[in-house]
Amino acid sequence: MSAQTVLSISPKLGYAGAPLVDWDYLTKHGQAGDFVFFGYDQEISRRYGPSNAGAASFVRAHTSTIDLVQPGTYDLGTIASSSPAEAIGEIAATAARIVSTFGGVPVLVACDHTASVGALLGSIQERSVAPVYVYFDAHFDLGRNCAPDDLIHNGGFVGEILRNKWASCAVNVGGRSVTAHVSYPATADFVNVPAYRSDAVIARLEPLAGQSIFVSIDADVLDPSVAPNVPCPEPNGMSAADLLACCQWLGQHCDVIGADLSEILPSSDSRNCELTLMSCLLALKK
Ligand SMILES: [Mn+2]
């Protein structure tokens, strides 16, 4: 048996033990609904918290030796971009290519949460109906204290998504920062679920059953006892089990068209939160 036969695909070295593949492999073997991870290792536009550059590679290195992965899950590697200013377009182009080539589901692992705009834009490119943007995050990231032309950063990008109608509605789960309690004028098409226990959250999410959704996970939705290594920690967050149960429910009842994970600080004191968060992303797969 030749080495080529044995290594028809790479050894498992990607996110959650998924095989690292290239476009050639995906074009030949990718099937509709397959989850395709890709990383982006640079900061794009951070307004809050210290830099977490390198987070995508950190998460891959800390999850590649486990075997959580299911069939039909791949890792395309880490994409490079010429500059942070070009990054959103390049992330969007990669996500759009995953969708258009074989109907895959793009799953981005990134640094600051702003990268989610690129993953969402690529995921919706061939769709006529905007999805619901479901984001697990201690912060609303609506930029309600920012000028309307100053929203493309990790504290305002959800406001930009709504203003541009890239999503039909944004649903926040786990928002609890001090700004979540300030009285701002209501934001159209924004809903928050101020509960963390999965049974209470799922009861609120039930209207989403059967709908197309994009799911974005900011690591700071978890309690700092579970995920201490985030740039903007907030006390009293969700438990790992509750976040996982919510993601399982979304995966089973909704059409997940794309997903992302961000805001993990590379650190030796991660308490393995990257494994927890990777399990949550995988739970979104049918
Ligand atoms: Mn956050």
Describe the structure.
The chain has a single domain, classed as Arginase, Chain A, CATH 3.40.800. The chain has nine helices and eight strands. The protein has helices at 3-6, 23-29, 55-63, 84-102, 116-124, 157-163, 198-205, 240-253, 273-283; strands at residues 35-40, 73-79, 105-109, 132-136, 169-173, 190-193, 212-218, 255-262. Helix 3 links the parallel strand 1 and strand 2 (73-79). Helix 4 (84-102) packs parallel to helix 5, helix 7 runs parallel beside helix 8 and helix 8 (240-253) runs parallel beside helix 9. The chain starts with a helix and ends with a helix. Bound molecules: manganese (II) ion (MN). The site of manganese (II) ion has 7 residues, from loops.
